[in-house]
Amino acid sequence: xxxxxxxxxxxxxxxxxxxxxxxxxxxxxxxxxxxxxxxxxxxxxxxxxxxxxxxxxxxxxxxxxxxxxxxxxxxxxxxxxxxxxxxxxxxxxxxxxxxxxxxxxxxxxxxxxxxxxxxxxxxxxxxxxxxxxxxxxxxxxxxxxxxxxxxxxxxxxxxxxxxxxxxxxxxxxxxxxxxxxxxxxxxxxxxxxxxxxxxxxxxxx
Length: 205
Description:
By secondary structure, this protein is of the alpha/beta class. The protein is built from six helices and seven strands; from the N terminus they run αααβββαβαβββα. It has helices at 3-25, 28-40, 49-60, 107-123, 138-148, 195-203, and strands at 78-81, 86-88, 97-102, 129-133, 154-157, 172-176, 182-187. The protein has a seven-stranded mixed sheet with strand order 2-1-5-4-3-6-7, with helices on one face.
């Protein structure tokens, strides 16, 4: 075997060892998530909130005979907080709600989490945040939140999901307006710290 081929095999071996280590320790999710943040920075994954706002405006000015298509939210969702207390989505009725479905094993979820944390820091006093973890063990979600220093309002499902929320994709984010209408459903990751998104949330109050 010549030196060039030997060097190539050594490189493959190193990559394999690193990959095995990352998967064995569970760090591969965070490494992939970190890499995906570069894509988030482009803004290409963000929901087109300007278009959504325009469509909502058109619906709100429509006549009764035109039958606006705003979807009412089913608040019948029970939530367990990090201390084991059970809450209901109904508690936040009358407010704009940021509802995010995520899991620690989901790289896109990990990728968008810093932007959600930033948004929460800026708007958490006015907008209830519900980050619903779909980890098999809720302790993993709590440990992840603590390790990252987020202190986000994370929950685990304490009941079956209403039909309107039964989507398999993670992450998925829902925004509910103050009148109880589903204002946004976004499947996939996004940069929620974008100023345009914050303006969108403020417009729903």
